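Task: sequence design from structure.
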């Protein structure tokens, strides 16, 4: 069956897919390998995600190198002779940024005999909008009593980790056109051996795997008006897609602003995202985040700190600059007929309805390398309902338990070259790009229905296109 016959047949059966598909067929096809604009780099090996913007000045490359050092090297317990990097913990998940963002790329779920490092569990309990209004305004959720907003599975000597995270898998089978059977794996999380008293009975958990770092400065430079123009929370155009901006608390300006970063777009900018990771993942304070995730019951203040704050403003700025300056690798195999066919399928199935191919960044006098760049990140930066199979049931500001921010796809074909264990989706459950597609639900369900009905050749063409990104 051809693609045209398939779409026509779906129309006959009245499930609405052709409207969904046709309305997105006009999205642009990438016409340049420079996915990250003028700063794109040609690096396709294990270091593909670790280069500075190609158009970064030599002076700024020194700042990038300093930031890289603090991003890559471990932080240690205080007091230490390494005064610039002490203050770790006492409760934490890892001792370096690179420990989660492996080679600046994706993390992965732990293997059976492995401690989780690049995947952690966010925690919350149900909130009352009236009683908990202040905390919902500034944090977007209600942290769990005693255990806070994130499960810390490591601790300094003399302290106890909060608990152990245990992960098991349930098999889920999907059958595609032609009888092809794909076995997915559904994660099941348990928290065992809690060391600070019983866990709340109404505890909500959300697994999060570390995302890739490339192109974050470019994503921050997309004008907010452009993202607002893409939002359609009431699906007024009737295409089955109802993306919305998250509205989150900016710690610096003390006001509600659009969110861009994190799996639920709960952070407004790269700096706040980075300082949040220092506090939550490593137990390190900064001017922006003067408190870690330790609660009074855990008595973390009995341990020496690494200064007030532990991450100095100077170091914080270097790390933020580094995170905003990691370059995007160039597209590959753009002339391959299968890749070109896959690009057309990507648009025709409606995938481009959320994974918006092209943006143009705004102007920043301090960052000419990020300004007025035509980029191809394949994201609208909006929240979308991804269906019950991917739901975590945990609200975060305006994001409900079914909603996730559209993940940028640029560089995704190199993800498992950078980290061979890398997993896809918010919890790394998908081992392949096809598995990731098949887990999509909610607003993406019509596109997945088209994909599962494609011939093996067309499915492979779509995968070839994604691999070329």
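Answer:
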């Amino acid at each position: 069956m051809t693609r045209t016959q398939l779409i026509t047949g779906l129309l006959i059966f009245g499930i609405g897919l052709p409207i969904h598909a046709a309305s997105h067929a006009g999205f642009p096809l990438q016409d340049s390998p420079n996915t990250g604009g003028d700063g794109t780099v040609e690096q396709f090996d294990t270091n593909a995600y670790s280069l500075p913007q190609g158009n970064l000045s030599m002076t700024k490359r020194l700042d990038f190198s300093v930031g890289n050092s603090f991003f890559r090297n471990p932080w240690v317990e205080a007091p230490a002779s390494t005064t610039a990097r002490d203050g770790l913990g006492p409760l934490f998940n890892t001792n370096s940024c690179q420990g989660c963002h492996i080679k600046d790329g994706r993390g992965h779920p732990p293997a059976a005999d492995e401690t989780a490092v690049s995947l952690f569990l966010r925690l919350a309990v149900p909130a009352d909008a009236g009683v908990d209004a202040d905390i919902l305004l500034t944090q977007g959720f209600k942290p769990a009593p005693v255990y806070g907003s994130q499960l810390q599975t490591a601790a300094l000597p003399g302290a106890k980790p909060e608990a152990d995270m245990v992960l098991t898998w349930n098999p889920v089978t999907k059958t595609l056109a032609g009888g092809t059977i794909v076995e997915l794996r559904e994660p099941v999380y348990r928290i065992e051996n809690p060391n600070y008293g019983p866990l709340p009975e109404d505890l909500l958990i959300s697994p999060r795997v570390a995302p890739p770092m490339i192109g974050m400065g470019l994503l921050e430079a997309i004008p907010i008006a452009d993202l607002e123009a893409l939002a359609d929370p009431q699906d007024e155009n009737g295409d089955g897609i109802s993306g919305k901006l998250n509205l989150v608390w900016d710690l610096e300006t003390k006001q509600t602003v659009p969110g861009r970063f994190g799996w639920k777009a709960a952070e407004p900018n790269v700096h706040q995202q980075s300082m949040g990771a220092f506090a939550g993942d490593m137990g390190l304070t900064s001017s922006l985040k003067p408190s870690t995730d330790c609660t009074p019951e855990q008595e973390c203040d009995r341990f020496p700190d690494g200064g007030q704050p532990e991450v100095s403003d100077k170091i914080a700025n270097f790390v933020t600059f580094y995170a905003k300056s990691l370059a995007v690798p160039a597209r590959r195999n753009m002339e391959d007929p299968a890749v070109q066919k896959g690009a057309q399928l990507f648009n025709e199935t409606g995938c481009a309805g959320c994974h918006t191919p092209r943006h143009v960044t705004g102007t920043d006098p301090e960052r000419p390398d990020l300004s007025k760049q035509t980029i191809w990140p394949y994201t609208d930066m909006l929240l979308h309902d991804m269906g019950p199979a991917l739901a975590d049931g945990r609200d975060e500001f305006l994001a409900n338990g079914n909603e996730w921010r559209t993940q940028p796809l640029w560089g995704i074909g190199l993800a498992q070259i950078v980290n061979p264990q890398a997993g896809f989706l918010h919890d790394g459950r998908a081992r392949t790009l096809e598995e990731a597609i098949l887990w999509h639900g909610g607003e993406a369900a019509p596109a997945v229905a088209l994909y599962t009905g494609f011939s093996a050749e067309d499915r492979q063409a779509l995968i070839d296109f994604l691999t070329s990104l």
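Confidence is low (pLDDT under 50) at residues 1-24.
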